[in-house]
Design goal:
Helix content is about 30%, strand content about 20%. The chain is an alpha/beta fold and about 170 residues long.
Length: about 170
């Protein structure tokens, strides 16, 4: 994240209903617990060259129901370790969304229909905006509750709880 809290990177675009087995195939997740090894296979079943093209800070951009399927904590963790700074989607499967925030991966709900592969994006979670630098427009995002922003700021739920010893109410 840039010093001003803005995430910057390129868009890697996927469609609707990207399930957790597409994010990390079962043929890998039952073979090793090494998240760096798993990250080399992120999105492999739907985009075999993804792990070679993704750069630190890039974004996964998808349609609706991203992260559907099995409840696997490895899915958002693998995305994060692949270098992706956030996932932008029209909607998320509920359990994936919760797991993403808990693992420190921003899950951003917005209208992704105008974003194309390779577009340069700037995501400002605090202001609730996504700027498509390539195409010259700005989108509003569904704001995250303050507690989720705090969890993301600490890098995930475990780090948040270690630092605060519980939730600030």
């Amino acid at each position: 994240m840039a010093g001003n809290g803005i995430l910057r990177g390129r868009a890697h675009v996927f469609g609707d209903d990207v399930n957790t087995d597409y994010i990390i195939s079962g043929k890998y997740k039952f073979r090793t617990l090494d998240v760096e090894e798993l990250a080399r296979h992120c999105m492999e079943d739907v985009d075999p060259g993804f792990s070679e093209r993704v750069r630190p800070g890039d974004f996964i951009v998808a349609g609706g129901n991203f992260g559907c399927g099995s409840s696997r904590e490895q899915a958002p963790l693998v995305i994060k370790h692949a270098g992706v700074s956030a996932v932008l989607a029209r909607s998320f499967a509920r359990i994936f969304f919760r797991n993403a925030i808990n693992k420190g991966l921003p899950a951003v709900e917005c209208d992704t229909s105008g974003i194309r592969a390779g577009d340069e994006l700037e995501v400002d979670l605090a202001r609730g905006k996504v700027k498509n630098v390539t195409r010259g427009y700005t989108l509003e995002i569904v704001p995250l509750p303050a507690v989720m922003m705090d969890i993301l700021a600490e890098g995930g739920l475990t780090d948040y709880l270690r630092k605060h010893g519980g939730f600030k109410l």
